[in-house]
Here is the input.
Amino acid sequence: MNAFIAVVLVCANGVPQDACTDDKASEVRKVRVANELGCTSGWQEIIARTDLRDEIGKTSYLKTECRRVKE
Here is the structure.
């Protein structure tokens, strides 16, 4: 059976989207989800509860990924 990891990367506006990776992001949040649909929801709430919420869209942006992991 497969599971997924939902990943939210916070990158500075100066970092091109294709270069926004775990090692270039200023913040990386990961959570295990049951399916790909789980990767598309919930991250807004995670970020809204942090100090990052004021910077998104001004000095940084979010990139989300869904990674498959073997159980």
Remarks:
- The two ends are 6 Å apart (CA to CA).
- The mean pLDDT is 88.
- Residues 2-70 form one domain.
- The first helix runs from residue 43 to 48.
